[in-house]
Write a structure and sequence with these properties.
Distance between the termini: 27 Å
Number of strands: 7
Number of helices: 12
Shape: globular
Strand order of the largest sheet: 1-2-3-4-5-6-7
Strand content: 15-25%
Mean pLDDT: 94
Length: 263
């Protein structure tokens, strides 16, 4: 593994502008990605991308929260903070995957769901809750991978999965360290201290059995070394699918239910 870093240092790495996005992972892991758009209700949310992709002759449904690298890209992607139509698009694609018996791979990278008034007016809370409810009952295998920030309900709306994996320098938490510090100590500047007690790093989450696997980063992942790391991820994803191909749809669903009931 990479050198030992404290929790706040890993938070900073998880937020780095140079960190690969969901579309980067999709392009390096899968073949022939075809992006699908829209929630069939309101519109298309660029903060969530999703569609069909191939891996060694098998078709997957892949979904990811998408940030940008430049300010212009981040404005377009709303800094990776999805609106209700984004979660409804994701659910539409997951239900389609179930219909056609396709495994689902989700890439999670968000500071949290968008909390603007327009998102609330369009039913942000209901959209997230609906995803949790529906994902719990899907009869195809679901794998969610934390690639950057895994923030609050915005993250778990794509993480009710049979297995959750995490990049070594990613995080997964109920809210941001800044929010935690502001609520608990009335001082957002104590975010580094909050990060150390929140148990949000990959090793903490593995010890708590919140995630099944840590994907190591000898050096923090970037475009220069993503090919090497994603080659190993391809093999792990293939092994994940082979394991669940041995199960019936009912067994896949029951295993996911048991995973979350164990917390």
């Amino acid at each position: 593994m990479a050198e030992q870093l404290n929790a706040w240092e890993r938070v900073q790495i998880s937020r780095s502008a140079g960190r690969p996005t969901s579309l980067d992972y999709i392009s390096f892991i899968f073949d022939d990605f075809i992006e699908l758009h829209g929630d069939r209700c309101y519109g298309d949310d660029p903060a969530i991308v999703g569609g069909l992709a191939g891996l060694n002759g098998k078709t997957f449904t892949v979904i990811g929260q998408q940030k940008g690298r430049t300010t212009k890209e981040n404005v377009k992607r709303n800094f990776g903070m999805p609106s209700p139509e984004g979660y409804r698009k994701a659910l539409r694609l997951m239900k389609q995957a179930e219909k056609f018996h396709r495994p689902i791979i989700c890439f999670v990278d968000t500071p949290g769901a968008y909390c603007g008034i327009e998102a609330e007016e369009r039913g942000q809370g209901e959209a997230i809750a609906r995803n949790l409810y529906e994902m719990a009952g899907l009869k195809v295998p679901i794998l969610s991978i934390m690639i950057g920030e895994g923030g609050s309900g915005g993250a778990i709306a794509l993480a009710v999965a049979n297995e959750v994996w995490i990049m070594e320098n990613a995080t997964y938490s109920v809210l941001s360290p800044e929010g935690f510090a502001a609520i608990l100590w009335k001082d957002g500047k104590r975010a580094p201290e909050a990060a150390s007690v929140m148990k949000i790093t990959a090793s903490d989450l593995k010890n708590l059995q919140v995630v099944e696997e840590i994907i190591e980063e000898e050096e923090p992942i970037g475009i220069d070394n993503i090919e090497e790391i994603t080659a190993g991820m391809r093999e792990k994803i293939e092994a994940f699918v082979k394991k669940y191909e041995q199960m019936t749809p009912e067994e896949i669903c029951a295993k996911r239910y048991e995973r979350f009931r164990a917390f």
